Amino acid sequence: MNLLPFVASGIGLGGIYALASVGLVILYRASGTLNFAFGAFGALSAFLAWDLSNNGGVPPPIAWLFGIAASTGLAYAYGRIVAPRMAHRDRVVRAVATLGLALIILGALAWYYGVGIARRIPLPTDRDFIVLFGVRISATRLVALGIALLMAVGVGLLLSRTRIGLAMRALASDRKISATIGIQVTRIDSFAWLVNGAFAGIAGILLANLNRLDPPFLTFLVIPAIASAILGRLSSLPGAFIGGMAAGMIEAVLTGVPEVSHFRSAGPYVAALLFLTVVGTGQGVGARE
Amino acid sequence: MIRIESLTVQFGGVRPLDALEGEFKAPICGLIGPNGAGKTTLLNVLSGFVRPVKGTTYLDGVALTGLSPARRTALGLRRTFQQEQVVDELTADENVQAIADHICPNRHDAHNEVKSALSFIGLAGRANVLGRQLNLFERRLIEIGKTLVGRPKAILLDEPGAGLNDSETDKLRSLLKEIPGRFGAQLVLIDHDADLIASLCIETMVLDFGKLLAFGPTRTVLDAPIVRQAYLGTG
Amino acid sequence: MTELGKTGAYPVAVGTSLGGALFIPRNVAIVVVVSAVTALIALTAGGFWLSNFTQAYCIVLALLGCALLYGQLGLVSLCQWALVGAGGWVALRVYHSFHPPFVVTILAGGVGASVIGMLWGLPALRMRGLYLALVTLMLAGAFQVLISVTSFPVGGPGFLGQVGMSGNDRVMMARPIFASSDTAYFLFVGFMVMLAIFLVETHRRSKPGRAWALIRKNEQMAMASGVHIVFYKAWAFALSGFLAGVAGALMAGLFGQLDDSAFAPTDSITIFIGTLLGGTGVWLGPFLGGILTRFIPALLIDYNVNSYVGLLFFGMALTHALTQAPEGLGGQLTALAERLYEKFKRRRTS
Predict the structure, then answer these.
(1) DSSP string over B28-82
(2) Which residue, A268, B52, C25, C287, is the most exposed by fewest CB within 10 angstroms?
(3) Which of C1, C215, C225, C228 is the best mutation test for B, with the most CBs of B within 10 A?
(4) Distance between CA C189 and CA C195 in Å, rounded?
C-alpha cells in the first residue's frame, strides 16, 4: 500500500488548512473571537477573482488581488464597525455573530452564483510538477504550502518584531490591562481582522483551485480549519500551522487506505476530538474564558 | 466549631495563607484584615474550592481534607459570597428551595425549612418575587436565608453587608445576632465595617499577608497596636 | 457565563407568564396554543405543507433540547441534529429487527440518542463555552461522515440493514395504524410536541431546573449549595438527547426512511440558530423557532427560490436577534402579551 502519493497530495490541502488555521488563531488570540465566517470570506474572494477573470476579462493575477482585497476589506470593516459593538459579550456570542455573517455571505454567493456547478479556479502552476521519491507533486500544491509557510512566518515575525505585533500579543494576554496601559484595542482588533481577511482570501482561492469553486464547500472550510486550530490549542501559531498540516495530511492519507477512505473527511474532526479529550483544553473548570 | 491547623496555600510564588492556626469557638466570630490578607482564600479553603499545600481544617472535629464542596455542605457548612449569588430567573422562594432540594432529607422538611428561613429574614411576603426584581438588601437577605436551611453548623459570611446603607446594616446586624440561638449555627463573618464586627463578633481573627496577626476577644484585637498598624500602615 | 436569553429592560419578567400566575395557568396556555396551531395547520395544509409542518414539529422537539442546554445551562450544543439522526437510526434499527409497537420505537430512538448524547457529553462536561461548542461541532462532523458510510437501516440483513444496489428490497418504516394518514400522523406528532413541552417545563419548575439555574449562575456556588454538578449536567444532556432522538424516530416514521445527506453539521448549526431566534426563556420560543426554521425554507421551495436565500434570511435574523432581541421571538411575544395584559388590568381597575 503506497501512501506516498496521498501524502504528496496532502501537502497542498495541509498547506491550505495550515493557512486557515493560522489566520483563525491570530484573530482568536488578539480579539477572542473565533471567526466562523473565515471560509465565507475565502469564498467571497475566490468568486470575485473568478468572476473578474472569467467574465470581466481582468488578467487573473489582478483578479486574485481584487478578490483578496475584497475579503480583507470586508473583514476589516467587520472588525472596525461590528466587532466593537460585540466586544463586551462573551466569546460564544461573538463567534455566533460571525456565524450570522457567514450565512449572509454564503446565502448571497449561493444565490448569485449558484451551487453544485463544476467550477475551479485555474492557476498557472497546475500543469507543472516535480517528482520527489518517485511521486508526482503538483506545483500548485507546493505553492500552497509555500504561501502558507511564508505567511505564517511573516505573521510570526510581525508578532515578535513589530510594535503592532507587540500590542497584539499584549491584547491576547490580557485585554483589560492592555486597554489601561494605552493600547488602542479597537485599532489592534481591526488589524487582526484585516490579517484574518487576507489569509481567508488567499486560502479561498487556493482551495477553489485545489478542489472546487462552490459557495458551501468553500464556506465550510472553516470547520476543518477550526479542527486544525484546536490541534494547535487555539493559541500557538506554530501549533496551528502544524495542526493544519496534520489535518490535511490525515485527510489525504486516509483517502489511500481503502478500508477507511470513506471516513477520510472525518480525519480532522476525530483528531481534534481526540486531542481535546486526551490533552484537554488547558482551561480547567475554574479557568477564565 | 471550626479549627484550622498549620494551613498553607500556595499559588506559584504567592502564599495567600501561611501556616495559619486558630480555632473559632464563639457563636459569632470575625475575620478581618486589609485587602489581600487572605480572608476570602481562607473561606475558599474551608468551602473546598482551594486545596492547601499543607495543613488541615476541621468542622466540629471532622477533618475536611479531601471532601467535596457538596459533601461539606451536607456536613453543615454554609457560605455566602462577596457578590451575592441570587438567580434572577428564580423567585425568592425558589432561590432558597434550590439549596434545600439537596440538603434536606425529604420534600416536606425542605418546604417547611424554606418557609421558616424566608420568614426569619422577613421576606415571606416576597416569596414569589423574581430574583431580578429584588433590591440589593433583599438579595443579601436571600443569601443569608439560603444558609439557614438544613441544620447548618457553621456559616461563613463574606462581606454580607457590602453595599448596604446604615439602616439596612442595622437590620442585618440584629438578624445575624439571632442566628446562633435560633438555628444553632456558628457564624464566621468577614467584613470591613469595624462597627459591625465589634458589635457582633465575640472573638476575631486578624490576617495580614496570609499570616495570623492577632486572634482574641474582638475589642482587644481591634485596639491592638499591631492591628491598627496593619490597617493604617497599608491603607 | 452567557447572557443570551435574558430579557431586555421589560418591567415584567419573562418566563413566568404566557401562562404564569398572571392571567392563565401556564399549562392551560400550552395546551390551548399548541392545540390551536396544530388544528389550524391540520385543517388548512395539504401534501407538501403538511409534510413540512410535520418536519417543523420534529425540529421543535430538537429545539426544545437545544434550548434546554443553552437556556438552562448556557451550554452550546452544535450537534443536536446529528443526535436526531442517531435517534432515527436507532428507531429504524429497532423497527426492522423487532417491529414493535410504534411508541416503543419512538422511545428506543429517544433512549438511543440520549445514551449517545451522554457518551458524547461526558468528556465535554468539563468544558464550557466555546470549547464545548467546538467539540459538539466536531462530533456533528464525525457523525455525518459515519452515517454517510453506514447509511440508515432499510430492512436488509446484518447490523447496518442495507440492501445493496438493487434498491428493490428496501423496506420503509410503517406508521402506526392510528396515525397512518398524513393528517393523522401530523396530529400525533403535535401531541408528542405538547407532551415534550410539558416534560421540559416540569423539569424547569422543579428540582433539576433549580439546580441548573444555580449551575448556570455560578458553579462554585452550586457546589456549595450541595448540587452534584456532573449529575445535573448529564441529566440535561440526557434529556436534550432524548428529545432529539424522539424527533429522529418521528422523522423516520414520517418518511419511512432517512437520508444520510440530511444530517450535516450545518443542520445542527441551523438548529442552534433556530434556538437563538426563538429564544430560550419561554416554551413558546422553541415552538415558534421550530416552525419558522422549516417554514421559511419550505416557502422558498414553494416559490421556486434558491433555498440558499433562506440562509441569507437566517443570517440577518440571527444578527438581529443577537443585537436587538436576545430573548428571541418567543420572549418578545411573551413580553408583549404581558404588557398588553398589564394595560388591560390597569384599565379594568381604573
Answers:
(1) EEEEE-STTSSHHHHHHHHHTSS--SEEEEEETTEE-TT--HHHHHHHTEEE--S
(2) C25
(3) C225
(4) 10
Q: What is the pLDDT of residue A288?
A: 33
State pLDDT tens for residues B70-129.
999 999 999 999 899 999 989 999 999 999 999 988 888 899 999 999 999 999 999 999
Which residues of chain A are within 8 Å of residue C220 when distances are taken between CB atoms? 286
> What per-residue confidence (pLDDT) applies to C23?
56
Of the candidates C1, C135, C315, the beta carbon closest to that of A100 is on C315
State the cell numbers at A21.
488555521
Global pTM reads 0.85
Q: C 114-143 residues with CB below 8 A of B?
A: none
Q: Which residues of B touch C16 (CB under 8 A)?
A: 130
Q: What is the mean pLDDT of residues C184-191?
A: 94
CA distance A208 to A205: 5
Using CB atoms within 10 A of its CB, is residue B208 exposed (0-12), middle (13-18) or buried (19+)? buried
CA separation for the pair C313, B113 (Å, rounded): 52
Q: Do C130 and A110 touch (CB under 8 A)?
A: no
- Which residues of chain C lie closer than 8 angstroms to B132, CB-CB? 13
Cell of A69: 482585497
Cell of B210: 496570609
C13 Cβ under 8 Å from any chain B Cβ: yes
CB-nearest partner of C217 from B73, B74, B87: B87
DSSP track, A167-223 = HHHHHHH-HHHHHHTT--HHHHHHHHHHHHHHHHHHHHHHHHHHS---HHHHHTTHH
- Chosen CATH of C26-349 out of 3.40.50, 2.50.20, 3.90.380, 1.10.3470: 1.10.3470
| Domains annotated on chain A, with CATH | 4-279 (1.10.3470)
Contact B67/C at CB under 8 A: no
Shortest Cα–Cα distance, C310 to chain A (Å): 7
Residues 192-211 on C with a CB inside 8 Å of B are 207, 210-211
Q: Between chains, do C131 and A276 touch, taking CB under 8 Å as contact?
A: yes
pLDDT given for residue C184 in this prediction: 92
Share of chain C above pLDDT 90, in %: 42
Q: What is chain C's alpha carbon radius of gyration, rounded to the nearest angstrom?
A: 20
The DSSP 8-state label assigned to residue C172 in this structure reads P
Entry field: residues in chain A: 289
Compare A29 and A270 and report the one with higher pLDDT: A29
- Single-letter code of the amino acid located at C285: G
- In DSSP terms, which residues pair with A241 in a beta bridge? none
Name residue A122's amino acid: P
So what's the architecture of B2-83+153-233 in CATH?
A: 3-Layer(aba) Sandwich (3.40)
Could you give the CA distance from residue C333 to residue B171 in angstroms, rounded to a whole number? 41
E strand or H helix that includes residue B21: strand B14-24
Identity (one letter) of the amino acid at B89? E
The residue behind cell 485545489 is: A210
**pLDDT tens digit sequence for C100-135:** 999 999 999 999 999 998 887 777 677 767 888 888
